[in-house]
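Quick check before the chapter quiz. The format below is the same one you will see on the exam, so make sure you can read both the input and the output lines.
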Amino acid sequence: MDMSDDIGSPPWLGRSLPRVEDAALLTGRGRFIDDLGVPPGTLHAAILRSPHAHAEIAALDVGRARSLSGVACVLTGPEIRELTASLVVGVKAPVECWPIAVDRVRYVGEPVAVVVARDRYRAEDALDLINVRYKPLPVVIDPRDALAPDAPALHPPLGGNLASDRSFRYGDPERVFAEAKHRIAIDISYPRSACTPIETYGVLADYSPGEDAYDVLANFQGPFSLHPVIARALKVPGNRLRLRTPPESGGSFGIKQAVFPYIVLIAAAARRAGHPVKWIEDRLEHLAASACATNRVTHLEAAVWDGGRILALAWDQIEDCGAHLRAPEPATLYRMHGNMTGAYDVRHVAIRNRVALTNKMPTGLNRGFGGPQVYFALERLVQRIAIELGLDPLDVIRRNLVPADRFPYRTATGALLDSGDYAAAMEAALLQGGLDELKRRRDAARAEGRLYGIGYAAVVEPSVSNMGYITTVLTAAERRRAGPKNGAQTTATISLDPVGTVSVHVASVPQGQGHRTVLSQVVADVLGLQPREVRVVTDIDTAKDAWSIAAGNYSSRFAPAVAGAAHLAALRLRERLARIAASQLNTAAEEVVFELGRARARANPDNTIAFTRLAATSHWAPGTLPAKVGHAIRETVFWSPPQLTAPSDADEVNSSLCHGFIFDICAVEIDRTTGEPRIDRYVTMHDCGRILHPGMVAGQVRGGFAQALGAATLEEHAYAADGSLLTGTLADYLIPTVMEVPTPVILHRETASPFTPLGAKGVGEGNCMSTPVCIANAVADALGIADIALPLLPARLAEHIHGPEPTAPARRAAPLAAAKAGERHLFGEGQAVVAAPAERIWEMLLDPDALLTIVPGAHGIEKVSETHFRAEVTLGIGPVKGRYRSEITLSDLDASKALTLKGSVEGALGFGRGTGWVTLREEAPDRTIISYRYEAAIGGKVASIGGRLLDGATRVIIAQFFSALAARAGGRKTSGILAWLRRLLARLQ
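Here is the expected output.
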């Protein structure tokens, strides 16, 4: 909507003004990274990725790819190692972390080679010409298994897979547990989930050999703490790495910070190619190899007194960070360290934190990072305490909430909770959310035999992270040697041009938060302008703009920190403008008022000057400025709150500046037949401090709720036991749509933060922390079960209702030799009628020249011996298409009657092996019936394709083979069902 529409009069903050951003976005005029122009001579990159979760690279031949016309260069591990340095690892451990595989691969999707060519199409074609021979190694997927003494080590110098092990003690937990009347524990295995923004990663990199400098455009959200990490990896000083961001970002939810290894990779490719290089990640790459939230195994125990009072907590957490510990991880494990008691007054805490490495994609920051994992365990424990002690969960929550008269409240582990009245917010939610009505619905449903439950969650939402929290992973002695790291710094610049118009620039790249709208409101209120008179610039250029290592858009920093810094910059600029105005209006500076686009004397409203003329004075008439005032052209503020101190020697850390409060209620009914959960009502009460823009706060809450609903009921980054990703497409990794997301009841209670310039707190991540456990508590209440795991899939819930399904009978007559647990298996059988004698068909099956014309996608077939063939084929299944190398051996040959085929295939998109049994029965001299059955095991990217699509495509490919066989053997074209299947296959490819 055009901001020139009538929007009333000031003040602007606290009102839902139309979003400045929407006009461009809703009309398709957004400027995202793939929309922007590129420099002349720009080349394009494609990445060859590992189909194995763990393997040595035994041989890597890129000769054919390099010789392909249009290919500028091909880079592999040794070249990247020569051009770059190992990425910074998040803990002190003897491991290296490169943006590409060096010597061995450690997860499916890890980069193995980069092709740079004149266009992406040619680069993708060249990938098919790269020949990699892998030597598979044992795989470990579960973090508990990874810590076993005999587990395969991902990084041999580490001597195992334990990257970090730290224990913490606050208060006297041992004594309290010894004296406790009740000890109640819960075990949680929190799954991985992805961010799935609409826009995937994108990088455009250029290298200047004369300056030994890099210029990089990337849809990078920060934090800028990773700028020195990238510069170090590229072996240049920070001032020789220019990092720019596009004007718009198609979402992030945290994951865009993890693009930095690809920045290093593509920048190195640009240096070797001698041209700018562009790379845009595709959706399959993003799901398999970008980054996702950590999975965590937690054992949590509480020392509880009668009435449900919790006096001590003991945490044992194992964080699975995947194959590489990339900075800023293990941030997810330590971001909540000061908040391990949640919203509760618990003074005795023991914590053990272990970081494990597994053969999975490396992890990164995901919306609410750390919060979902902590609160799922803590709030599930609160419900278990209530059930085991025969109490109402609400009474347990009430008895443990931090009292209102204790704020600011220092938690046992060091967080300083700034403000709130948790009990009042909770009671308001119960009343306004209609809990009594929901209880009546529950009782009526249960009386009818239906499954209906109510769950609750009370959480503290931290925002504006203390950059020093991650150093809690180090001991106090290690921190002293490394030097202090702490605080949060935010930057805002306000500029006045020669015609007196106002521009605002902040070091925070938006991903949908409405920076331009809210900041225009903030500055307009201070300077007495209309919001449309303030232009806000949000793209970043580290070579030109003011920024800090702690700047960026993460941890819900915008409202409390970024908007607050802009407010402070506006106040400082107004102070100088007031002194300039005072000299022209002949009044005192403190008497100058800014409103309605003018500066006026408070006592004489007619004594005024236009803001534009006043603002232009420093440009046009600097000689008229009062003494000691200086210019009023630009004001930059670096704001850093004093409350964010470094971790103490006792490992106490105020890990975030401000803390909102959320109390959620979920009423859910579960279909007794299908197990599908349906949310009857969801109520979410927020205290996020001062609300700057109610409409956008509602949008943040709804967005967080939708994402959390997906994590609770649909989404899981699932791996097979061999490390194959099972959810590598959006057909398998399901995310909620508008059809699955109910409208939550959103309630607010405002208690301003005393620590932020505008009194605001963060609100963008809270429901990702509270909603998964609230829904789980409701489902557990409906089913009457103690243990529940995410995601809450109907099939899983149906097992609680009906019991586990009986094991299906075996479909195959003979087992696949040496089948590996966790591989995706395919089975099938069928018949084909060929108008030719059996002897002729038999000869064709053993003739490589004949096979070349009938095997789908075959490029070449080599007969190594009478029973051994090699082939190269290109096959497409749904969105996955690639080139494969195949080895086939024949056995059990009964001439013109039967044979057994065993084979293996391997390519950039996956690998497989299988067995097929073929029999020929000649009914007449020109009519032979071919019967076949097969079984196969596949892995790699191709294993991520949905099972039904794989089965269907396999049948189509086999049908195409027999169609071609019939056509060649019978000397005629095929028709009927075989021809139809052939056409269908062509469309699939």
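If your answer matched, good. The CA atoms of residues 74 and 115 lie 5 Å apart.
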